[in-house]
Structures are given as C-alpha cells and as structure tokens.
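Weekly sync notes, structure subgroup
Attendees: PM, AL, DS (notes)

Item 1: joint prediction request from the bench team. They want all two components modeled as one assembly rather than separately. Inputs as received:
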Amino acid sequence: MDGFDFNITIVGLGLIGGSYAMALKELKPKNLWAVDIDKEAIEIAQRKGIIDKGYTDVKVPLKDSDIIILCVYPALMTKFIKENMQFFKKGAIITDVAGTKETLIKEINRFLRKDLDFIGGHPMAGREYKGLSFASKDIFVGANYILTPTPYNKKENIALIEKIVKGIGCKNIMKISAKKHDEIMAYTSQLPHIMAAALMKGVKEETHLFVAGSFRDATRVARLNGRLWADLLIDNQENTIEKIEEFEEYVGSIKNAIINKDHEELETIFEDARIKREEFIKKCQH
Amino acid sequence: MDGFDFNITIVGLGLIGGSYAMALKELKPKNLWAVDIDKEAIEIAQRKGIIDKGYTDVKVPLKDSDIIILCVYPALMTKFIKENMQFFKKGAIITDVAGTKETLIKEINRFLRKDLDFIGGHPMAGREYKGLSFASKDIFVGANYILTPTPYNKKENIALIEKIVKGIGCKNIMKISAKKHDEIMAYTSQLPHIMAAALMKGVKEETHLFVAGSFRDATRVARLNGRLWADLLIDNQENTIEKIEEFEEYVGSIKNAIINKDHEELETIFEDARIKREEFIKKCQH
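Output from the run, pasted for the record:
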C-alpha cells in the first residue's frame, strides 16, 4: 500500500463519520466507501461526493476494505465486528473513534480474527450537534488524536493510522494505553460534559437575560447526545466517578472558604486557577 | 441635560472602566473624565483619547461631574463614596458596575447625601483579562445590563442611565431588585466561575494534549481576577452557597445514575439538558 492507495470504509455516517469521510476524501484514497442503516444519509453523502459509494449491506464493501473506521455508538462497535467477522478482508485494519477504550479493546481482542488488526483511536474533536448535516472536514484540523495501541497491533499498521490522522489535519497524536486513555478522558471530557448538564438544570424562563459569556461557554456542550454520553459514562464508570468526586472535593474547598469568608484562601485558590489556566492555554496554542 | 450634554467621570480605569470610557466617548458627552490611582493608566487613556482628562486627585473632576461611574473593586465602592461625599456636585447621579448589589446599595443609601442618587448597575460583560490594555468599547455590544433601582432613585435619573446603557450598545436592560440580582448572579455568574476554577485544579503537565473544546470552554473563565472574585463571593455568600449546593445535588444525581449504570436515567438527564440548552441559546440569540 503506497501513499493512500487503499480502500477505506467508514461505518456510520453521523457527525464524526461524515467529517472523517470529508477529510479522507482530500487524501484521495483508492475508494472511500461508507456503511449506514440510514439510506438517506448514504444518498446525501453520495450526492455531495463525500464518499464514492455507500451501502446498507455491510458485506459488499467489507470484503475489499483495507481500512475500516467505526464511527457508530460505542455500545454498537463490538457487536458490529462480531456479526461481520467473516466478511472482513484478510489483514484488514480496523480502527474506531469511541470516547472510551479499555473495555472495548479487551472485548474485541477476545474474539478478533488473528489476521485482523484493531487499533483503538479517539479524535478529540466534536461538536455540540449530531448527524451528517453538521459534519465538516475541518473538525480535525489542529485537534488532538489519541491512539491506544496494544502489543497485538502491527507496527506498520499503527504507522499507517498515524499517517491518516496527520493527513486529516490533527496536530498531536498521543499513543497511550487504553487504561490511561480512559482515566484521562474521565477528567478532560466526561467531567466538563457532566458539569455542563448539571449547570443547565437551574435554567429558568428568563435566565438568558441575566447571562454573560461565562455561563454560555460553561454550558455549550450541554447540548448532549444523550445516548452517546450514557454509553460513555457507564462504560467508563469507575474513572468517571473518581473524577466527579475529586471535582466535588475542589468545589467543597471553595464552598468552605466562602462559608468562612476566608478572602485570602479564595484569592489563593483563584490565583492558582488563573496561573494554571494561563499556562494551559499557552500550551494548547503551541 | 439634553442628549449627552453632561460631564461624566469614570472611577477606575481597569478593564470595565476603560471599556466604559471607550464606549461613552462615542456618545460625545460634554466632558469625559477619569480618576485612578495609577498615573500610567491615566496617561495611556489620555494619550489614546479614551478620556478627555484623567486625575489622581478625585476632588477636581468630582465637583463638576453630573454622572459618576464607579468601576473599582466591589469592596472599595462604599469607601470611595464615603470618603469623597463632600466633593460630589449637587444632584449628581452615581452608578456602579459591581457584580453584587444588595449589601452595597443598603450600605450606600445609609449615608448618601440626600441630593445624590445612587443607581446600582451591572453590565453582564467582561473578559478573562484585567486592566486597561484589554479594554474595548465592544464588550457592551449585545450584552445584558442589569439595573437595580430603589424607591430612592429619581425616575428621570434611571431613564438617563438607561439611555447611556442603550447608547453603549447593550441589548437587554433588566430592572430588578438588588436582592433578586444577587440571587440570579450566584447562579448565572458566580457558579460558572467557581466550576471553572475547580475544574482547573486537576490539570497536569500533559493535560493540554488530551483536551477538546469542551474542556477549554468550561475553563475559559478560570483565568480569574482573584481579588475581585473573592470580594464577590464573600459579599454574596448566602446565595452562592445555595447555588453551589443545588449544583452539587444535580451532579450527585448524575453520579448516582452512573453508579447504578442507569442508562435510561442518564439519557433522560442529558436529553433534558440538551432541550434546555437549545431553547436557552435560541433566546440568547434573539
């Protein structure tokens, strides 16, 4: 396989699958196919030239696909591979975009055909909308992308996925264990989404007249895809609970300082936050 | 006083004071003055034409000022009025921009000269930076602005402040009691700032490589001005604690649903958040 001279199939033409297809198209793979149960999504994707051809029947594209990118709900990934195991092309590489990794990879490697290679992936990109109509090739530009390779993965296959990820515009590719991935995501992704949802709970009829940017920004991701996030949080239960409890502790220490009218302590807490945030955002921008 | 034919003095040339001056300049008041203890800020403001003239000696501009806008730290407002009471022009209108109102207004009205009129104001505008160099006349454009008038205020004075607020570009002017203001702000402003600070606490050396927009947005305002926020939270102690506890309860219910692996409950919570957020942001944009 030279350059991007292989057949790629995207499974699931939602926000991420659609965006992935758009971004991959620019790399000119031999064929870019898609599978979806939604005929309309396929028709739209074909008409817009996002994919070369789409299928509701998985078998057809799978037997000739060198790379398969699973962009379905996390809970459906294992099921998809299991049910279609016999149709995969010999030596095919399968990757995914799920926001949790440990359970998924363990399960898949338990039954995966020996010639196939599953490499866990997670683009740290998204939008607060779902569906193909919000897809854009630009969502990957400058984004972080995490790969969670295992000793089962072939080095050249990992390198190929990395090449694709760079190709669609991602900035940092981090290779870490699935376990580490899930620990980190509980904090950097699941926690802010939980906070945003919890913050929305108190919104009333007139609240919009009394907000500034702080509230709008803090609740941006509260426009949650409920099914997806329920999947992720339950799958990453242990880490998420731990991070929620750490967060509760921090909120508690601020609360105590307010109760004690401890101006100095509050200033210290906020100064720390300010300095951390400044350093953090500087690093994000590099 | 016809049109904007009066003398205005801004007290405190920080982010908000500086921005206020810039926006007011466009309305062409008779004179636009400023008071600050920082000579450099005054020099810069004069040189850039943000103000007509600045003073470190309060007395000079105060005796001829029809309107005084206090843009200093909340804890300094009362002190400023008390110490300079004798210098205010007869019948002058004083307003402020503090993020808490009830205590402040009660205290001020306790000793304010009978001919003076203090009208509490709070522009729901800001930035995660402090100081004159980040000031911009645009921060008020489209923003919400809250006024907390009391029976002591003259109708025509309230109308004049409203005219100014509209003039600098604010969209909604809400007139509510100081008590109501503080209750609402504990939720729409103080809570998101506390959350942002608490969320930063767990940031490590490498965190920036594992974040997407959700984390960045949720922590934007963690770049806090510690002194200002310590002032605000302590001043609005009771309401803030109440809102933190409501928030803790919501987070707790999400936590329980995760512990119970209650997919349906999580989906319901997130669907509710999504619908609320969609309605909310639609209203914000109108």
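Discussion: Chain A touches chain B through 86 residues (CB under 8 Å).
Action: AL to compare against the crosslinking data before next sync.
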